[in-house]
Amino acid sequence: MDKSKLGVLIQGAGWVSTQHIAAYLNNPATEIVAISSRTLEGAQARAEGFGLDVPVFDNYEKALAVPGVDIVSVCTPQQLHADHVIPAAQAQKNIVIEKPAGQTLEEIRRMQAAVNKARVKTIVSFVLRWNPLFQMLKRMTHDDAFGEIYSVEADYQSYCGDWWGGYPQGRTVAMGGSPFLTAGCHAIDALRWFAAQDEFSAADPIEVFAYQGGKRGQSTRQYNPFTNDWHEGEPLEYPGLEMALVKFSNGVLGKVSTNFECIQPYALPIEIFGDKGTVKDNRVWSHKYPGQKDWIELPTICPDSSDVSHHPFQGEIDHFIDCILNDRESHCNLEDAAKTHEIVFAAYESYRTGQPVKLPLAAE
Fold this sequence. Notes:
The chain is α/β, with parallel strands linked by helices. The chain folds into two domains: about 5-125 and about 315-335, NAD(P)-binding Rossmann-like Domain (Rossmann fold, 3-Layer(aba) Sandwich), CATH 3.40.50.720; about 130-305 and about 340-360, 2-Layer Sandwich (Dihydrodipicolinate Reductase, domain 2). About 30% of the residues lie in helices and about 25% in strands. It is built from ten helices and 17 strands. The strands form three sheets. The chain has a nine-stranded mixed sheet with strand order 16-15-14-13-7-12-11-8-17, with helices on one face. About 45% of the residues are buried.
């Protein structure tokens, strides 16, 4: 072990852990010192896949006790995050938390309390904040390319079926929760991100009104967007479509949806409206381009794939390591990410009452 580097424990050996490991291996300030998972076989396979000669565990408590662990990357299923984040904070480890951070507001509040008491650094993997298009649009917004932002829209559109390895758990209310929670929180976070004028901050939501619906219901007929065909499979346990209106403290209005029923390839469309310009995905119209006669297309990487290998984990991890080394908080720490999650839980309350819901929410 190189004592000049920050030691990393990878907790969880699923699909997303491959991207965490790759990002740490590419950062000169970090070294992976252990991998832990539900099974020793899974942890060992992940270590061997990257040529890592590190101890592996099926016992999280023992893994946390490995000498030299400075950071824990929590890559486990969402229903286990609280069980892994809280002990990591109590052990004085900095923490990377996969999204969603927790299943309930109560879980997230407990994680926040543990993190605040321990005064450790955190980051939640709303990784699209490091997508090149997102970064470009934030810089342009900060540079007044679109004037004062007054409306934003974001949608997560991806048919949720057993083509996805996490479907057996993710389709359930107990372990997936809803489209907004399981995956659409990326679009909700994008809404907050683009509703803020500053380059490195997200807007604070103050009110949510939401509907859920769709046509899929308990149907066992299932679509595969990669093979473009149909087959029989297990149904979703929750409605496949959610829509919400969000009011932010700076006056910006937002509209967001998650559609697990759409018969199409994955898409995450973005629209930003300001009093001096407009954004539609990677196309812009701006007062900065006098005489503009057509949309200007930004030649960059867009958030157009659900494959974790397409997501900019390197940017996220590099940012977090820089935060640790320079003793500063990430703009995407648990305290901030909780506000994205609150929109999800406020939507649930709005379904129940049929009324707008004020934020922040009080934990039950």
